[in-house]
Amino acid sequence: MASSSLTPPPEVPMKLHVLNRNKLITSLRDHLSSSSHPHHGFVLLQGGEEQTRYCTDHAELFRQESYFAYLFGVQEPGFYGAIDIATGKSLLFAPRLPTEYAVWLGEIKPLSYYKERYMVDLAFYTDEIATTLLNQCQGVAQPLLFLLHGLNTDSNNYSKPAEFEGIEKFEKDLNTLHPILTECRVLKTNLELAVIQYANDISSEAHVEVMKNVKAGMKEYQLESIFLHHAYMYGGCRHCSYTCICATGGNSSVLHYGHAAAPNDRTFEDGDMSLLDMGAEYKFYGSDITCSFPVNGKFTNDQRLIYNAVLDAHNAVISSMKPGVSWVEMHKLAEKIILESLKKGGLLVGDVHDMMAERVGAVFMPHGLGHLLGIDTHDPGGYLKGAERPKEPGLKSLRTSRALLEGMVVTVEPGCYFIDALLVPAMKSPSTSKFFSSEINRFRGFGGVRIESDVYVNAHGCLNMTKCPREISEIESVMAGGPWPIKKSVYFENGAC
Amino acid sequence: MASSSLTPPPEVPMKLHVLNRNKLITSLRDHLSSSSHPHHGFVLLQGGEEQTRYCTDHAELFRQESYFAYLFGVQEPGFYGAIDIATGKSLLFAPRLPTEYAVWLGEIKPLSYYKERYMVDLAFYTDEIATTLLNQCQGVAQPLLFLLHGLNTDSNNYSKPAEFEGIEKFEKDLNTLHPILTECRVLKTNLELAVIQYANDISSEAHVEVMKNVKAGMKEYQLESIFLHHAYMYGGCRHCSYTCICATGGNSSVLHYGHAAAPNDRTFEDGDMSLLDMGAEYKFYGSDITCSFPVNGKFTNDQRLIYNAVLDAHNAVISSMKPGVSWVEMHKLAEKIILESLKKGGLLVGDVHDMMAERVGAVFMPHGLGHLLGIDTHDPGGYLKGAERPKEPGLKSLRTSRALLEGMVVTVEPGCYFIDALLVPAMKSPSTSKFFSSEINRFRGFGGVRIESDVYVNAHGCLNMTKCPREISEIESVMAGGPWPIKKSVYFENGAC
Ligand SMILES: [Mn+2]
Ligand SMILES: [Mn+2]
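# manganese (II) ion complex -> structure
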């Protein structure tokens, strides 16, 4: 019978978002000082709106926009928030709800409720934004608004600056806020780490619950259902960080399996590998965890070879991570270890340095080693303004090329996949065919292995926040019914983790 | 230990959507003949596109647009579909996927795969729409396209007509298709009924699973989690028809509780009523089911009074439903029975006809009695073009005012709620205060009761497709651990249900 060592889910103090705001204002003032600009004006952000499906009244479950969530922690749609740069005062603007709201959607809360709950200094209605902000800085003809506008380097989309009635009465700055706020998000506070740790704990436990219940003959989506249920039932996680990837057999070489066109609907069989990439989100903060194992609970020699190649890469990277280390170098380290293992296993022949130079690593691991993680699964800030993406296969898929900094949370997710679309051309190419032994044909259709942990970079090294069984002996033991207790951390104590 | 009598979920034959297309073409030809228009041109629909969250690359789980799903049954995003009105031939246009798709998202399927899987006559790429359609009707200078444009009377939004490169080479008709296609959706085929029956069966079983596991001290969302898990794990339902409403105590008087601003997060207590409105969706077709019961499994006298008032209304309506019956009259019937019960229970005094005239029924049941159900929870077609919405309280909330027709699936969902925002003004109003006895004050904070079943109108009456415990004795027995087996229907046999 399912249960959890992690219930009840912890209360997350709203102070987390107060600190996020303070951090932003400190950074913003530093920036303004350094460019001799006065400390006046407002940061103004618009929260997300509820969306309906196509032309219908089907309301999609609302999830707050991430920058707004970061600064204000507001779970409801339709809000705006501002911070007075001179005073640091925070202002929240709530939608003025029609009286029918009380009948259909719930109690209409007074502004004082939002002020208290979200720990802001002042609360108004959204139809009062212009008058309120003008009132706050009497005497200034056109107060300055710092609006959010900037590129998300994973989606190539731009964030949408706030819009409201009366905005033409203000001067607008669209360039300053985005990079500074993004960099605040890159470096996590202790309170943020505590939430990410909880998301990791409950997700790790949910992965273990899945491992314990896998049986050949099940459908892939049943593993998704077990995970989702554990994370929600015991962890209070209504959202996941991303759509669950529950890939078995050959599907495990499809990096982003699980979407509507490949909806985890295969019946898996004895002997299949599985690759389960699933992470719950708690109070806006996510986790991103992948476990790979044979569905029957016992690794074959071939499975052992590929799994340990990836695990060695995973462990070597984590052992090397500390502030200052280049993420591109970590990616190459992972590639090197995987190639060495494949060579040792007889799948590849020749010099590993030569393979690296010919980018053979990217045939087996076409994705980046990992990415920043936080309120978004692919948290922003991976490329600073002006930074160029690497162009080489594999490296060009990196979501960040930065050097590690204390406070970053990064996923470490090496993988080794047998993808015909990449393998076949590489085996034929004049520059790379020589590296492939005929042994590799045995692995066509194998699928792939990915091992993904969420890692926090601290002053001297790093900390793996993910608590899943990783060694083959651990996985086989858990799948055979062995214990795998996940210790509840002290998440919040005197506001720290 | 949870299990299900309904596994494995049934295979839904693609013929369902072929029949939907045939039905549309027959209707459309009839319409064109009756207005002496020639049978030429194409019906052209654009399927849904995958959406990302705000500026990020977080992909929302795709759900097909409902009209497109109805005609083509396509689960993937980015498609278009057409039907040649003269020949009835169906054409599907698939997105041309980049080669990287194979690495990240899965095998790139050939057009023949889609042609076969979706049982269409021809398959092309979406960049071939204009040339293909022009080729199909050589000699016609500007072939006619019937595009989807019309009002959704629940959302007040308009469906978005298809757009594609080269559309300017065609003549467009924006008025004909929407009402005819919508009316096709109103009247279900046997194949559609079979899918709705399955969605009802698995959802009914999931509701029973919840009833068996409710305990005071739990969180509301844990009931949501149990429901979702049962429907997905055993029923293969990845989507629900709508966000789960798990309301307990006073929350059960909030009609659409459960959204992001009221996220099923209360801890419920011994003595609370619960109102659980949850329905799974299977292969596009939905269910919409509400159960109400005390969380401790034993009804008090007051709970019994309100529950039976609603159950009597529910049963009386179902006993009266048949083709030709006005849904407005059914709403009034439900109101009358509830008011009579409240009078019998001492909460109201005076003449029930007078109460009805003063719309006291709408104080206790401000929503409509029910709505069409199908691929959308609030399925379109509730108001025919030109039909006016009733204006009176309660009646104005009806999502349809039509007379019942054989083939409709309608929810029957009477409710009785104690909503201060409505009750307090009505108790004070000169025209209605006389009807309220002081007994009613005992029920302030009671919350509410709703009982909702999905009902199919057949030639001579109707059929309740929902299989939940409804009588108080049944509910108490199930909650005490008694059996409630749900018999697996024969869903598909020779293509019929
Ligand atoms: Mn990841
Ligand atoms: Mn309903």
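# post-check
Chain A has a mean pLDDT of 96.
The radius of gyration of chain A is 24 Å.
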